[in-house]
């Protein structure tokens, strides 16, 4: 059974960086890791996001750490004499070191592997090309519609403003020497 995860970190040859996922029984400070380890449970889980530096060049990443194992239920039983001296001691915990290696590849290597060769990694299939053209057409149409809508509202506001000023000027006759200012919005 597990009691706790004390530490867990990642390292890689050629990368001058050690990324801690767990340190001192606490998830990393930057928030790249989450973990749960309930004392007495058979499994602890850790979820970590590796930084981009680990994927710059292909190679093996090493995950290392220390976990505290728990033996038994955690209750302590021992034989004692009448002076309450402990005749048999039990240590229900032991620390265990773990180490695991896994490969990482670069993004370009993944593309080459999935497409079969380096020359075909830049090709676009016919359905992808049709979809791309269709999406561009929709985007251009939407932009034209938005600009048309904006311009028509601007014209409508200008016409309404002119009508309002005309109505105002007709309902209130101007006095001698008073200037009437008409403002038209662009």
Automatic annotation (TrEMBL):
Keywords: Membrane, Transmembrane, Transmembrane helix. It comes from the Eukaryota. The chain crosses the membrane at residues 129-149. This is Uncharacterized protein. It comes from Fragilariopsis cylindrus CCMP1102.
